[in-house]
Amino acid sequence: MILNPVTPVALLTILRASDVRPNIPPCLANNFYGIFSQQSVFKISDFACFDLLPASVDEGSVVSLHFPEDGPQQLVWIQESSIDNSLRTPEYEVEVADFDAWLVSEKRVAYPDGQTILFEGAEPSPPSLVYRNANSGIVAVADQDAADVLSTRLPRFWKAMPIPASPVSYLPIPSAAVERVRDILVSLRFDALVAGIVNGISLEHMRKDIRYLTNEDGTSGILSRHSFHHGSRIAAEWLKTQFEDAGATCRFMQFLEGFAPNVVCRYAAKTESSNTVLISGHYDSRGSFGMERAPGGNDDGSGTISVLNIARRIKQTGITFRSNVELVAFAGEEQGLLGSKAYARELRGNGANITLMIQADMLAYHAPEEPPQLGLPQFIGTPEVAQLVANVSAIYSPELTVGLTTACCSDHQSFHEQGYPATQVFERTGPIADPMYHNSGDFSDRPGYDLNQVRSISKVQFATLLHAAGFDLPEGVDLEDLERDD
To answer: Is the CA virtual torsion 397, 403, 404, 407 positive or negative?
Structure first.
């Protein structure tokens, strides 16, 4: 661990954040700024705090911080996603090199000829590079607006996540919450009614939905679902209408000026209950470097249509729940999980009782010569929830090969940070392999886009919800009726 003892303020990043939970010293807990990819970030001035770190923490970095009074004040974490080596093309490496050169030389990023820039107007002040390693870094920019614009300048497989100006709550998952998930795990058995319900998820509806969201059918007019683009508002209105048609009570949650809203939908428990099971995807998208078009067929149209078609099946079967159920389509994911962070904070502030949360992000890409897969997070999330999802998959979608993925991190992280049991479902065990990741060619009509895999993972997400929330069929409806609905 590198430490300069004369530095008045330092930013500390600790690898494998789980190593410091839950027995974290107060000098760190009171100066926690969030989890970024797989690292916890703390801003500290008392260097005696380092002596209090758990013995399990043997990796980390300490970065000196000094802000001139008239200089950049907003810190932004930048991170390369975990990608398969097949995506490390010479073209991509040039993008990264150009971006690095821009960071250190303050030159403008040159966009390829013919590209349409989403943001127009004065070029923002260049960021100041604070820290850089092989696949991540910290930059300082003028303000939040400049941080948002920075996300449009990144190489295709990189993300930007603003570091908050003030400490945030450091909330380990309560042992009682984990024990509740373990109870579900212990009691998990095959249920023919659950199988009959989830098997009725419609592949054809999924196909129609994704073609609308990407405008492949030519009806929506959506060029992009980027959180700042008007196309994201079209998508939000459409999603809200679809969820409401499926019997949910929905609202828009505005969280930052200029951003599309979260679409928050709810099925209230049939009897009084504070328990809530939440499943989600993010409907915002990102296109190729500097281009306006961002169809987001896989990232994350696939997760969005999973959640939407679960809602359709709830309506079709008429089931009611013994716990509250929320289905959420987040915005602002591509700018640093901003929509889900705002909602998770709101829930924590309201004392919400979340049994578990499952985020669906990128379900559709099926690499050649590989079996259909389900990836679960290796680093960020609650292991017991991931194990529950894996066990449910073995029962209801045995065609999926289940394993861990280093792809990190989606909106489940926002709930994890607020002390809620959470995990993510992903398309692959291993790193990202989709060549259209963060690409303007991310449509559904292309090689490798597998709606059958989406449906299989959606069945797992839905079956986990059913087992965790509990449900009842309408009076007089039985398994034979469900099978006739399929």
So the answer is: negative
Cα gap 346→475, rounded to integer Å: 36
> Which DSSP symbol is given to 5?
T
105 CB burial (10 A radius; 0-12, 13-18, 19+): exposed
pLDDT in tens, 154-186: 899 999 988 888 888 878 899 999 999 999 999
Q: Indicate the DSSP class of residue 172.
A: P
CB-based contacts of 107-110 (< 8 A; 24+ apart in sequence): 109/153, 109/290
DSSP 235-253: HHHHHHHHHHHTT-EEEEE
Q: Name the one residue in this structure whose structure tokens are 């003028």.
A: 142
Hey, what are 89's tokens?
């093309």
Check: CB of residue 38 under 8 Å from CB of residue 380. Answer: yes
pLDDT at position 451, please?
Answer: 98
SS3 274: coil
Query: Under a CB-based contact definition with an 8 Å cutoff, are residues 282 and 340 in contact?
Result: yes
Residue with tokens 């979260």: 262
Beta-carbon count within 10 A of 117 CB: 12
CA distances for 83 relative to 166, 400, 434, angstroms:
32, 21, 9
What does 403-421 look like in DSSP terms, one character per residue? EEE-----THHHHHHTT--
Q: Which two tokens stand for residue 253?
A: 């949650």
Contact 313, 245 (CB under 8 A): no
Q: How many residues does the chain have?
A: 486
Residues 402 and 429 sit within 8 Å (Cβ to Cβ):
yes
Query: Quick check: 346 and 340 in contact, CB under 8 A?
Result: no
pTM to 2 decimal places: 0.91
pLDDT in tens, 231-289: 999 999 999 999 999 999 999 999 999 999 999 999 999 999 999 999 999 999 999 87
